[in-house]
UniProtKB/TrEMBL annotation:
Family: Belongs to the purine/pyrimidine phosphoribosyltransferase family.
Organism for this UniProt entry: Linum tenue
Phosphoribosyltransferase domain: residues covered: 37-131
Entry keyword set: Cytoplasm, Glycosyltransferase, Purine salvage, Transferase
Name the record gives this protein: adenine phosphoribosyltransferase
GO biological process: purine ribonucleoside salvage
Cellular localisation: Cytoplasm
Function: Catalyzes a salvage reaction resulting in the formation of AMP, that is energically less costly than de novo synthesis.
Signal peptide start and end residues: none
GO molecular function: adenine phosphoribosyltransferase activity
Gene3D superfamilies: 3.40.50.2020
C-alpha cells in the first residue's frame, strides 16, 4: 500500500519537526549506526544520523550496493523481495537504530533486523514515520 509522504517533505517546518522527534528520542540511546531502508527511509536517515552522531548505513534492494553484500529475503503481499547491506558496514557489537518511512506488514523491518543480528549487531529500536495498523501482518 503506497502512502504519499511528499506533503510532509514539502513543508520544511513539518519535515524538521519529524526529524526532531526521532533525534530527541534517539539522542541518548548510544547507537552508533542509523540504518535506513530504501528508498524513502533515506529522506530521514542521514539527518537523524548526523544529529545523533551515528554513521548512516543504507539497506537497499538487490544489486544497488557496491562491494560485498549479504541479502535477507522477506515476504510481500504479492511475493518476495530481498534486502541487502554491505558486509563491512556493520561490526559485531554495533548498536543500531532502524528508521523507515512506513511500516505496513513489518516484513522489511524484520528482514533488516535479521541482517543486523546476522552480523552480530544489537538492534536498539525500530522507528517509522507512518504505521498502517489496518494492513494484515505477514508471517
Amino acid at each position: 500500500m503506497f502512502q504519499d509522504i511528499t506533503t510532509l517533505l514539502l513543508d520544511h517546518t513539518t519535515f524538521q519537526d519529524t526529524v526532531d522527534i526521532f533525534v530527541d528520542r534517539y539522542r541518548n540511546m548510544d547507537a552508533g549506526i542509523a540504518i535506513e531502508i530504501e528508498a524513502r527511509g533515506f529522506m530521514f536517515g542521514p539527518s537523524i544520523a548526523l544529529a545523533i552522531g551515528a554513521k548512516f548505513v543504507p539497506f537497499r534492494k538487490p544489486r544497488k550496493l557496491p562491494g560485498k553484500v549479504i541479502c535477507e529475503e522477506y515476504e510481500l503481499e504479492y511475493g518476495t523481495d530481498c534486502l541487502e547491506m554491505q558486509v563491512d558496514a556493520v561490526q559485531q557489537g554495533d548498536r543500531a537504530l532502524i528508521v523507515d518511512d512506513l511500516v505496513a506488514t513489518g516484513g522489511t523491518l524484520s528482514a533488516a533486523i535479521r541482517l543486523l543480528e546476522c552480523m552480530g549487531a544489537q538492534v536498539v529500536e525500530c522507528g517509522c514515520v507512518v504505521g498502517l495498523p489496518e494492513v494484515k501482518v505477514i508471517g
